[in-house]
Design brief:
heterotrimer, A alpha/beta (about 425), B mainly alpha (about 80), C alpha/beta (about 400), B: about 80 residues, mainly alpha, about 0% strand, globular, C: about 400 residues, alpha/beta, 10 helices, 16 strands, about 30% helix
């Protein structure tokens, strides 16, 4: 096994709440603006939580054909648009070389749930019948049923013939999918991969199930200030949507073709709390173990970390858990390390957010600017770190940490390093 | 609401199991924790109380009602206040 | 490093456990029949390989039942059996070195259909709190980890019907990094009206209503497959950590490929060649091929050509033991890996029922009776809709093939 291959990101594409595109995304989060609002994709009236972070998405102006719009649910459309931006950004010609040496890995937590729900409503007569009428199904129903169709779509788009897969580990999918692709490059199965994650979960069933466990915020006044990570008044997350895709390749081959190098994906680990499908152990021990193992893989010490991009979902439980995990893993250094949650601005897009946060980390390294935690005004005694409140902060870290935490008990940690900063 | 109705709700939410019979098998002062009710199960109990029995309780009720008996007390208080 | 598969847990249309499954395979038994879980007569295909008479109360604590779909209940039963079978001593592995990797196609879909019905017929207040985690694709990975305190790197994969094998392949990858024990595999069921119609509306399944003849891979009349339910979860361990415990097989090689736009079957051939290379074995060393057996003429012909291209005409015994139970979604490939493990352990190739073969398949040496003999190296193939191919080489442990 070749464990010395180093993997870098040479292209980034983002579709995030607000206007699509990498630059729009960076402008939003670096200016500390928020994209949360009263939801428009679904009639909010019957729900407890009525705020969402939505993408102002016009498929045609994003370059999608009528056929692509017809066969892909919003989740697949986001992925395809982000992929094309990433490939253009990297300047890579994936038609060159052995297509069997290109892999595709897509993360998604809930896949084409909105389309599935539409199919259900039509075929069941709005839930009046248990037996459904198969003759009313769309010709794309099976593709909505199984999210691997999204990875297949992207693989055909780039002509990849290596391993193609969907990683669907709930809210850590966006980190885990990129890590999965890194493993494929590092072990030598492929030389390059397109990877990232997409989710477009804003539909009645998803809103209703988070209402039922009171995980999303009931706040209705000031929807633009609804999601308040680490703040004392935080009371739940805001559902978001979006995608981020990357071109990753082996470092030497990226250098040879003179590609832009945003950063190196230098360490990753995940752990499972084996505790509860939605609950978190208060001590944060599994997330801390994931961080420590990721640091080990990158050959780094806790003091090497100059910024933490937090999961920071803005639930009482998560932010407390995460703060404890940072202290456990980084020790005293946790108090000296800026920590921020971009979910305050772009919401929680479930499986996609991990990749969107990787994009934020890479852009922060490039711009030497740390995106803030918007809406943070009042300290919670249980969350006593430096959360970069409200305004972005100039800083030039060499290594940053991004973490994710999700239902199922999954905890993931990724280290992203400035190109040339490791070994 | 009496102990039998609450037993029925708990059964519906957490599965058929004779150990949920609060009148005979379980001391209603046993903590929810000890009878295997986690936070999600308890939220579902609140959901069922609301939609099937018209009992609307505050979200933070579970922070102090830690046993079936305590929950029953809170339900009765809500009823009296209404 | 060639990880060892040391414990098997299977749930199949023949019942729970390895023994009823294996003896049914040897008899070429058929478990396909009319659907009983819902009104199958309303759909283009009304027959399936159902797992009969499953009562989760016989196997799982009452507390788990309201929060789990049938697919998760199957997964928990299979995991329990795999761990029992492996008989790993308590404390042999650190919690953080023990992990779960499963694949999924639809998640807890029947559970989700009930909640959809509650939402759309009665309103959002009627959606269960459990819906927040009973449906999503990672549900089995999460529930297995909780029930057995497996706290290492968890993962859930979706690659259509190659998923179960991909999960076992991912287990090997993780054992090379920071894991020492991985519970890997998949179970699947699409047997609720909403899930079933995803398959029937796509025209994927056989229209022949006769359960005895509807699913016949490589037959000239193959016009689709029949779905079954169940799957396999297995314990995969580092070979240097199993001590004196027996292992069914070593994972010697693994490869996954994508067809690309050509869709000519070359992707499967490539997967076979890469997997054999990875295993450092020649085509001539392979004692049996467990074919994917998609069940349509076009897909079967492609597979026959890929096998023939690598092994030559009649060059290797081929079997499709899933013929009697149907395709188990993403779990069929995990079950095929388990079946190959049993074939190696018992040194018997389980048969494919005897029927007429298509012209392309006539070049295959299809095994139609239980064939006792040397089974030291088995190749297992899997494909998924959209262009997914996987191949895995399993070898008999502690032989000259298991050197590194």
């Amino acid at each position: 096994m070749t464990s010395t291959r180093r993997v870098v990101v040479s292209g980034i594409g983002v579709v995030a709440p607000g206007a699509p595109g990498r630059k729009n995304f960076w402008n939003l989060i670096s200016e500390g603006r928020t994209a949360t609002r009263i939801m428009t994709l679904v009639d909010p009236t019957p729900f407890r939580s009525r705020v969402a972070a939505e993408v102002d998405f016009d498929p045609a102006s994003c370059g999608l054909s009528a056929a692509e719009v017809a066969r892909l649910d919003r989740v697949g459309q986001f992925a395809l648009v982000a992929l094309r931006e990433a490939i253009e950004d990297s300047g890579i010609d994936l038609g060159q070389g052995d297509p069997g040496r290109t892999g595709v890995v897509v993360g998604t937590a809930v896949g084409s749930t909105p389309a599935l729900e539409s199919e259900y409503v039509r075929m069941s007569g709005r839930g009046t019948a248990w037996e459904v009428d198969e003759s009313l199904a769309s010709p794309h129903y099976y593709d909505y049923y199984i999210p691997s169709s999204i990875a297949a779509e992207l693989a055909v788009e780039v002509g990849a013939e290596g391993p193609v897969s969907v990683v669907s580990s709930g809210c850590t999918s966006g980190l885990d999918a990129v890590a999965h692709a890194v493993e494929l490059v590092r072990e030598g199965t492929v030389d390059r991969a397109v990877c990232g994650a997409s989710d477009a979960p804003i539909s009645p069933i998803t809103i209703a199930c988070f209402d039922a466990i009171k995980a999303t915020t009931p706040r209705l006044d000031e929807p633009e200030r609804a999601l308040r990570p680490f703040d004392k008044s935080r009371n739940g997350f805001v559902l978001g949507e979006g995608a981020a895709m990357f071109v990753i390749e082996e470092l030497e081959s990226a250098r040879r073709r003179g590609a832009p190098i945003y950063g190196e994906l230098s360490g990753f680990a995940s752990r499972c709390n084996a505790y509860h499908m939605t609950g978190l152990r208060p001590d944060g021990v599994e997330m801390a173990a994931a961080i420590t193992a990721a640091l080990d893989q990158a050959g780094l010490a806790p003091t090497d970390i100059g910024y933490v991009n937090a999961h920071g979902s803005g639930t009482k439980q998560n932010d407390r858990h995460e703060t404890a995990a940072f202290k456990l893993a980084l020790g005293e250094h946790a108090y000296r390390t800026p920590v921020s949650s971009i979910k305050s601005m772009v919401g929680h897009s479930l499986g996609a957010i991990g990749s969107i946060e990787i994009a934020a980390c890479l852009l922060a390294l490039q711009h030497r600017l740390l995106p803030p935690t918007a809406n943070w005004t009042e300290r919670d005694p249980e969350c006593d770190l430096d959360y970069v409140p409200v305004h972005a902060r100039e800083a030039a870290p060499e290594h940053v940490l991004s973490v994710g935490s999700g239902f199922g008990g999954f905890q993931s940690a990724m280290i992203i390093s400035k190109a040339g900063a490791t070994r | 609401m009496n102990i039998d109705t609450l037993t029925a709700v708990l059964r519906e939410v957490a599965g058929e199991d004779e150990t949920f019979d609060l009148a005979t098998h379980v001391d209603p002062d046993t903590s929810f924790d000890d009878i295997g009710f986690d936070s999600i199960a308890l939220l579902e109990v609140l959901n069922v109380l609301k939609r099937e029995h018209g009992v609307q309780l505050d979200d933070d009720v579970l922070e102090h009602a830690k046993t079936p008996a305590a929950l029953l007390d809170v339900i009765e208080e809500e009823r009296d206040a209404a | 490093m060639r990880p060892h598969i040391t414990g098997l847990g299977v749930v199949t249309p023949f019942g729970i456990g390895v023994d009823p499954y294996w003896s049914a395979l040897l008899e070429s038994a058929n478990a396909i029949g009319p659907i009983t879980r819902f009104d199958g007569g309303r759909y283009a295909t009304g027959i399936a390989g159902e797992h009969p008479g499953f009562d989760p109360r016989d196997h799982l604590p009452a507390r788990l039942l309201p929060q789990t779909d049938r697919v998760t209940q199957f997964a928990l039963v299979a995991t329990r059996d795999a761990l029992d079978d492996a008989a790993i001593p308590d404390g042999a592995y650190a919690e953080h070195a023990s992990a779960v990797v499963t694949a999924n196609n639809g998640g807890g879909f029947e559970f989700a259909q009930k909640e959809m019905q509650a939402l759309w017929s009665r309103g959002p207040a009627h959606v269960s709190a459990y819906q927040s985690f009973a449906w999503f694709y990672a549900v089995n990975t999460g529930q297995i980890s909780i029930r057995h305190n497996l706290r290492g790197a968890a993962r859930a994969l979706v690659t259509d019907d190659t998923g179960g094998m991909e999960a076992v392949g991912q287990a090997r990858r993780q054992l090379r990094h920071d894991c020492e024990l991985v519970l890997a595999g998949a179970v699947d069921t699409n047997l609720c009206p909403w899930g079933w119609s995803a398959y029937t509306s796509a025209g994927l399944m056989a229209t022949d209503p006769d359960p005895r003849t509807a699913y016949r891979p490589f037959s000239p009349h193959a016009d689709g497959f029949v779905s079954g339910e169940g799957g396999a979860i297995m314990t995969v361990e580092r070979p240097d950590r199993t001590g004196s415990r027996a292992a069914y097989a070593a994972i010697a090689g693994f490869a996954s490929t994508f067809d690309g736009v050509a869709r000519d079957g070359r992707g499967l051939e490539r997967a076979i060649r890469v997997a054999l290379d990875d295993a450092e074995v020649d085509a001539g060393d392979v004692d049996v091929v467990f074919a994917d057996g998609f069940g349509t003429r076009e897909m079967d012909d492609r597979e026959a050509r890929a096998i023939t291209a690598v092994f030559g005409s009649g060059g290797v015994p081929v079997t499709v033991p899933k013929t009697g139970i149907g395709r188990l979604g993403c779990a069929g490939s995990a079950l095929d890996v388990a079946t190959a493990c049993l074939a190696i352990a018992k040194q018997v190739v389980p048969p494919t029922p005897r029927y007429e073969l298509s012209e392309a398949a006539s070049a295959l040496h299809v095994v139609d009776h239980p064939a006792a003999g040397r089974v030291h190296t088995a190749l297992v193939l899997a494909r998924g809709r959209g262009g997914f191919n996987s191949a895995m080489v399993l070898t008999k442990p502690h032989t000259e093939l298991d050197s590194d």
